[in-house]
Design a protein that fits this description.
mainly alpha; DNA polymerase, domain 1; 52% helix
Length: 130
Protein backbone atom coordinates (compact mmCIF):
# COMPACT_ATOMS: atom_id res chain seq x y z
CA UNK A 1 0.00 0.00 0.00
CA UNK A 2 1.17 3.49 -0.72
CA UNK A 3 1.72 6.05 1.98
CA UNK A 4 -0.89 8.75 2.41
CA UNK A 5 -1.17 11.06 -0.61
CA UNK A 6 -2.56 14.58 -0.83
CA UNK A 7 -5.50 13.18 -2.81
CA UNK A 8 -6.87 10.06 -1.16
CA UNK A 9 -8.87 7.30 -2.73
CA UNK A 10 -11.72 8.18 -0.38
CA UNK A 11 -11.84 11.78 -1.62
CA UNK A 12 -11.75 10.63 -5.24
CA UNK A 13 -14.54 8.13 -4.63
CA UNK A 14 -16.58 10.88 -3.02
CA UNK A 15 -16.10 13.23 -6.00
CA UNK A 16 -16.76 10.34 -8.38
CA UNK A 17 -20.15 9.53 -6.81
CA UNK A 18 -21.26 13.02 -5.79
CA UNK A 19 -20.08 15.13 -8.72
CA UNK A 20 -18.78 13.23 -11.72
CA UNK A 21 -21.34 10.43 -12.17
CA UNK A 22 -24.61 12.20 -11.29
CA UNK A 23 -23.80 15.73 -12.45
CA UNK A 24 -21.28 15.48 -15.26
CA UNK A 25 -22.33 12.12 -16.70
CA UNK A 26 -25.98 12.40 -15.61
CA UNK A 27 -26.19 8.70 -14.77
CA UNK A 28 -29.38 7.26 -13.36
CA UNK A 29 -29.67 6.32 -9.69
CA UNK A 30 -29.77 2.64 -10.70
CA UNK A 31 -26.43 2.98 -12.48
CA UNK A 32 -24.99 4.74 -9.45
CA UNK A 33 -26.13 1.83 -7.27
CA UNK A 34 -24.49 -0.63 -9.66
CA UNK A 35 -21.23 1.34 -9.60
CA UNK A 36 -21.42 1.56 -5.80
CA UNK A 37 -21.85 -2.20 -5.52
CA UNK A 38 -18.94 -2.80 -7.89
CA UNK A 39 -16.61 -0.57 -5.91
CA UNK A 40 -17.79 -2.14 -2.68
CA UNK A 41 -16.83 -5.58 -4.06
CA UNK A 42 -13.45 -4.24 -5.16
CA UNK A 43 -12.72 -2.73 -1.74
CA UNK A 44 -13.79 -5.92 0.06
CA UNK A 45 -11.47 -7.89 -2.23
CA UNK A 46 -8.57 -5.54 -1.41
CA UNK A 47 -9.25 -5.86 2.33
CA UNK A 48 -8.95 -9.66 2.08
CA UNK A 49 -5.74 -9.44 0.06
CA UNK A 50 -3.97 -6.45 1.61
CA UNK A 51 -5.55 -5.73 4.97
CA UNK A 52 -5.99 -2.11 5.98
CA UNK A 53 -8.17 -0.36 3.39
CA UNK A 54 -7.47 3.09 4.81
CA UNK A 55 -3.96 2.94 3.31
CA UNK A 56 -5.20 2.09 -0.17
CA UNK A 57 -4.24 4.72 -2.75
CA UNK A 58 -5.28 5.14 -6.36
CA UNK A 59 -1.77 4.10 -7.39
CA UNK A 60 -2.40 0.70 -5.77
CA UNK A 61 -5.14 -0.05 -8.29
CA UNK A 62 -2.74 -1.50 -10.83
CA UNK A 63 -3.64 -3.48 -13.91
CA UNK A 64 -2.33 -6.62 -12.21
CA UNK A 65 -4.46 -6.10 -9.06
CA UNK A 66 -7.60 -5.36 -11.04
CA UNK A 67 -7.01 -8.35 -13.32
CA UNK A 68 -6.83 -10.60 -10.24
CA UNK A 69 -10.05 -9.01 -8.97
CA UNK A 70 -11.79 -9.70 -12.30
CA UNK A 71 -10.61 -13.31 -12.22
CA UNK A 72 -11.94 -13.55 -8.66
CA UNK A 73 -15.34 -12.37 -9.90
CA UNK A 74 -15.46 -15.00 -12.62
CA UNK A 75 -14.03 -17.96 -10.73
CA UNK A 76 -14.94 -17.55 -7.06
CA UNK A 77 -18.16 -15.54 -7.43
CA UNK A 78 -19.23 -17.34 -10.64
CA UNK A 79 -20.01 -14.07 -12.42
CA UNK A 80 -20.67 -14.29 -16.12
CA UNK A 81 -18.54 -12.34 -18.57
CA UNK A 82 -21.13 -9.59 -18.93
CA UNK A 83 -21.30 -9.04 -15.17
CA UNK A 84 -17.51 -8.97 -14.95
CA UNK A 85 -17.40 -6.31 -17.66
CA UNK A 86 -20.04 -4.21 -15.88
CA UNK A 87 -17.90 -4.36 -12.73
CA UNK A 88 -14.87 -3.32 -14.77
CA UNK A 89 -16.71 -0.28 -16.10
CA UNK A 90 -17.19 1.03 -12.55
CA UNK A 91 -13.66 0.51 -11.25
CA UNK A 92 -12.01 3.72 -10.04
CA UNK A 93 -9.35 3.79 -12.75
CA UNK A 94 -11.94 6.00 -14.36
CA UNK A 95 -10.41 8.66 -12.13
CA UNK A 96 -7.83 8.93 -14.89
CA UNK A 97 -9.79 11.99 -16.02
CA UNK A 98 -8.72 13.64 -12.77
CA UNK A 99 -5.42 15.52 -13.16
CA UNK A 100 -4.31 14.23 -9.77
CA UNK A 101 -4.46 10.66 -11.06
CA UNK A 102 -2.34 10.68 -14.18
CA UNK A 103 -0.95 7.21 -13.35
CA UNK A 104 -4.49 5.86 -13.45
CA UNK A 105 -5.13 7.28 -16.89
CA UNK A 106 -2.15 5.34 -18.23
CA UNK A 107 -3.44 2.13 -16.64
CA UNK A 108 -6.96 2.64 -17.97
CA UNK A 109 -5.84 1.96 -21.52
CA UNK A 110 -4.86 -1.57 -20.48
CA UNK A 111 -8.04 -2.42 -18.58
CA UNK A 112 -10.39 -2.98 -21.45
CA UNK A 113 -12.41 -6.18 -21.26
CA UNK A 114 -10.28 -9.03 -22.52
CA UNK A 115 -10.81 -12.71 -22.94
CA UNK A 116 -14.11 -14.25 -23.84
CA UNK A 117 -17.00 -12.02 -24.70
CA UNK A 118 -20.62 -12.66 -23.90
CA UNK A 119 -22.41 -14.48 -26.68
CA UNK A 120 -24.55 -12.35 -28.94
CA UNK A 121 -28.22 -13.35 -28.62
CA UNK A 122 -29.71 -14.97 -31.69
CA UNK A 123 -32.67 -12.71 -32.44
CA UNK A 124 -35.28 -13.98 -34.84
CA UNK A 125 -37.67 -11.47 -36.29
CA UNK A 126 -41.23 -12.22 -37.21
CA UNK A 127 -42.02 -12.01 -40.87
CA UNK A 128 -44.56 -9.59 -42.32
CA UNK A 129 -47.09 -12.45 -42.79
CA UNK A 130 -47.40 -13.10 -39.04
Amino acid sequence: MSPSKSVTLASLLHRFFVDYLPRQRALSPHTLFSYRDSIKLLLQFFVKKHGDISKLAVEDLTVAHITVFLQHLEIERSNCIGTRNVRLSAIPVRFGRDPDCSASSRSKRHLKPTGPRAAEPNVQYRGSRQ
